[in-house]
Amino acid sequence: MSVRIDATDRKILIELQRDASQSLDEIARQVGSSKTPVWNRIRKMREAGVIGRQTVELDAQALGFEACFFVLIRTSEHEADWQAAFLRALKERPEVQEAHRLAGDIDYILKVRVKNARAYDAFYQALISEVRVYNVTALLSMEEIKSTGALPLEA
């Protein structure tokens, strides 16, 4: 569902993506408006589903999660029961930060954040004990160059 947003809404969204913890007064100042109209716009965008839940971005390195793996999965199973079991297994594992079903030779890609290689192996062993996969390739990220959840909005 596409929601109609104007230039002021975009400015508000850009500010919220930059730092959702800033005060309503600060957001209003940044977008050139006053507090009440900005609050009303934010409320309407929440109700329309444009703005989802708000979370805190944690520093993985500072908390000891030093290994990020991109896991490529190929499967020969495409039945609904297998897919349901696979999705359940992914949702139960907090190490899986992202999971995508792909077009092409690889069926799924996962972003898995763990403390170290041993923790990744435990994740891998648990996953393959629950669901059959044809092939798994794990790629260790050596350096995170850019990571953002922000959409490329233009004011």
UniProtKB/TrEMBL annotation:
<protein>
    <submittedName>
        <fullName>Lrp/AsnC family transcriptional regulator</fullName>
    </submittedName>
</protein>
<dbReference type="GO" id="GO:0043200">
    <property type="term" value="P:response to amino acid"/>
</dbReference>
<dbReference type="InterPro" id="IPR000485">
    <property type="entry name" value="AsnC-type_HTH_dom"/>
</dbReference>
<dbReference type="InterPro" id="IPR019887">
    <property type="entry name" value="Tscrpt_reg_AsnC/Lrp_C"/>
</dbReference>
<dbReference type="GO" id="GO:0043565">
    <property type="term" value="F:sequence-specific DNA binding"/>
</dbReference>
<dbReference type="InterPro" id="IPR036390">
    <property type="entry name" value="WH_DNA-bd_sf"/>
</dbReference>
<feature type="domain" description="HTH asnC-type">
    <location>
        <begin position="5"/>
        <end position="66"/>
    </location>
</feature>
<keyword id="KW-0805">Transcription regulation</keyword>
<dbReference type="Pfam" id="PF01037">
    <property type="entry name" value="AsnC_trans_reg"/>
</dbReference>
<dbReference type="InterPro" id="IPR019888">
    <property type="entry name" value="Tscrpt_reg_AsnC-like"/>
</dbReference>
<dbReference type="InterPro" id="IPR011991">
    <property type="entry name" value="ArsR-like_HTH"/>
</dbReference>
<dbReference type="InterPro" id="IPR019885">
    <property type="entry name" value="Tscrpt_reg_HTH_AsnC-type_CS"/>
</dbReference>
<dbReference type="InterPro" id="IPR011008">
    <property type="entry name" value="Dimeric_a/b-barrel"/>
</dbReference>
<dbReference type="InterPro" id="IPR036388">
    <property type="entry name" value="WH-like_DNA-bd_sf"/>
</dbReference>
<keyword id="KW-0238">DNA-binding</keyword>
<keyword id="KW-0804">Transcription</keyword>
<dbReference type="Pfam" id="PF13412">
    <property type="entry name" value="HTH_24"/>
</dbReference>
<dbReference type="GO" id="GO:0005829">
    <property type="term" value="C:cytosol"/>
</dbReference>
<dbReference type="GO" id="GO:0006355">
    <property type="term" value="P:regulation of DNA-templated transcription"/>
</dbReference>
